């Protein structure tokens, strides 16, 4: 599997400790500080973070996600969660072994957190639960028996509620156009459920290359929606591809900053050059990054 899509989680000065937490909580997890704040050239609100971790990469099996160590500006919420698939095929075909691993992970992630859906049996799985951990990051853990295209262990899951209610199908079609995604499963609600109609998506997934994303319309009213607390990062090969994706995807001009944008559904994206890590090694790269909205490779 070649992961391209990356999930970024906003941490309020807790990047290091959260990285250690996830490395211990997730099966086969590990963490590494990928970059640090410089000691000079910081904006006023960043000065308390001088020299501290800027990005922390957490690896789980053959996938990764990133913790952005920053201030109190944003907080993750359940509009984007991470779904973990515990497939017996990954445990020698043993349902008991997969279930035991799921239960161990649930116990660790729920420590100090809040249960959103109790761990138990549901019509779509014999073992499922949804928990928001102590860093406000939401996780869905599911025991699966996959058929058809294999799904990765970890998938970002988009919940369309609040201002984005009932726009999941529209979003999937849009992302297909922007990224060349391919559709997987799509199941609509069999009857009106809360704010969801029979045209609303009860569950769907789609693939961006080797990466899978799930999406659903909320079946209960939500007072939250997408925000930069959880963002999706998409690397582009060269300036031309970056320009194309940025120009099509960005829908909120005032949200454009340092490679970040907000699309028409409210989802935050970081559209970056695929060699961003290399570019950040250049002299004054951090200061140059802060001055940009869309990232321009030649201006690093």
Characteristic key phrases:
single chain; 300 residues; Signal recognition particle alu RNA binding heterodimer, srp9/1; 7-stranded mixed sheet; 15 strands; 20% helix
Summarize the structure in words.
The protein is α+β, with helices and mostly antiparallel strands and 300 residues long. The protein has 2 domains: 6-73 and 229-299, 2,3-Dihydroxybiphenyl 1,2-Dioxygenase, domain 1; 80-217, 2-Layer Sandwich (Signal recognition particle alu RNA binding heterodimer, srp9/1), CATH 3.30.720. Helix content is 20%, strand content 35%. It has 6 helices and 15 strands. It has helices spanning 15-25, 95-109, 168-179, 239-249, 276-279, 285-291, and strands at residues 6-12, 30-36, 53-60, 63-70, 80-86, 114-122, 125-132, 138-143, 154-160, 182-188, 201-208, 211-217, 230-236, 260-262, 268-273. The strands form 2 sheets. The protein has an 8-stranded mixed β-sheet with strand order 6-7-8-5-9-12-11-10. It has a 7-stranded mixed β-sheet with strand order 2-3-4-1-13-15-14, with helices on one face. The longest helix has 15 residues, at 95-109. It is globular, with a radius of gyration of 19 Å. The mean pLDDT is 94.
């Amino acid at each position: 599997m070649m992961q391209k899509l990356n999930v970024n989680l906003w941490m309020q000065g807790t990047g290091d400790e959260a990285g250690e937490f996830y490395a211990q909580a997730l099966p086969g997890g590990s963490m590494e500080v990928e970059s640090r704040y410089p000691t000079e050239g910081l904006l006023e609100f960043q000065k308390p973070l001088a020299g501290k971790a800027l990005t922390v990469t957490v690896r789980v099996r053959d996938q990764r996600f990133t913790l952005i160590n920053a201030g109190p500006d944003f907080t993750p919420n359940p509009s984007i969660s991470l779904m973990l698939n515990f497939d017996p095929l990954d445990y020698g075909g043993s349902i008991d072994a997969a279930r035991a691993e799921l239960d161990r992970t649930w116990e660790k992630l729920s420590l100090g957190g809040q249960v959103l859906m109790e761990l138990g049996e549901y019509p779509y799985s014999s073992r499922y639960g949804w928990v928001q951990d102590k860093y406000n990051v939401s996780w869905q853990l599911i025991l699966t028996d996959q058929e058809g295209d294999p799904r990765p262990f970890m998938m970002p899951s988009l919940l369309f509620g609040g201002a984005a209610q009932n726009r999941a199908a529209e979003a999937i079609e849009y992302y297909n156009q922007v990224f060349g995604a391919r559709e997987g499963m799509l199941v609509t609600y069999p009857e009106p459920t809360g704010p969801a109609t029979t045209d609303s998506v009860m569950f769907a997934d789609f693939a961006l290359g080797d990466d899978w994303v799930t999406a659903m319309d909320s079946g209960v009213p939500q007072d939250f929606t997408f925000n930069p607390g959880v963002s999706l990062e998409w690397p582009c090969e060269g300036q031309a591809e970056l320009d194309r994706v940025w120009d099509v995807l960005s829908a909120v001009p005032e949200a454009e900053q340092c490679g970040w944008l907000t699309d028409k559904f409210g989802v935050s994206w970081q559209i970056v050059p695929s060699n961003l890590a290399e570019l950040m090694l250049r002299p004054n790269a951090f200061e140059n990054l802060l001055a940009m909205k869309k990232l321009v490779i030649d201006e690093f």
